[in-house]
Amino acid sequence: MRLHTVTYYSRLSGCADVDFNDILATARRNNARDNITGCLFTNGVHFVQTLEGGRSAVATCLQRIMRDDRHDDIVIVQAGDIDMRFFPDWSMGAVTAPETRIDEIRRFASDGAYRPEIMSSKAVVESLRSLALYCAADALSP
Q1: Which of 82, 91, 107, 139 is buried deepest, with most CB atoms within 10 A?
Q2: What is the number of other CB atoms lying within 10 angstroms of the CB of residue 12?
Q3: Cβ-based neighbours of 57, under 8 Å, separated by 6 or more
């Protein structure tokens, strides 16, 4: 099966009650069922997410996200076919903006705040991957 990936960012809706743990639980359940992998970042203002899997499964998942009232202003920054997954072991990895990783976040922030709407598409994708790698390293640290 040919793999497909989509990375997008959105702004958390001002009128939505957002429980990040609930979002993760639902995403992990649905993604495991649909053979989708990926990673979701939030800083309390934005979501940035990469989805990887079969083209149809990723498209269906993205359509579900686009109808979700917790998201405003969804912008797709990368989409295309891939040879292998970047997040092969994560039905949905979770990255938040902990104080311990503020220096890593600032690498991608022009004014000290993580704002994907003023970042290049490449920087949005790189920031998610970089933060995910830091979180994976943290999880493996004693």
Answers
A1: 91
A2: 18
A3: 34, 35, 36
Q: What would the pLDDT profile of 62-113 be if each residue is shown by its tens digit?
A: 999 999 888 889 999 999 999 999 988 888 877 776 544 556 666 766 666 7
- Please write down the HEC assignment for all residues of 83-111: CCCCCCCCCCEEEECCHHHHHHHHCCCCC
- Written in H, E and C, the secondary structure of the chain is CCEEEEEEEEEECCCCCCCHHHHHHHHHHHHHHHCCEEEEEECCCEEEEEEEEEHHHHHHHHHHHHHCCCEEEEEEEEEEEECCCCCCCCCCEEEECCHHHHHHHHCCCCCCCCCHHHCCHHHHHHHHHHHHHHHHHHHHCC
CB 20 within 8 A of CB 9: no
Residues 39, 93 contacting (CB under 8 angstroms): yes
At residue 29 the predicted structure's pLDDT band, cuts being 50, 70 and 90, is: very high
Strands 71-82 and 93-96: unpaired
How far is the C-alpha of 57 from the C-alpha of 44, rounded, in Å?
Answer: 27
* pTM for this prediction: 0.84
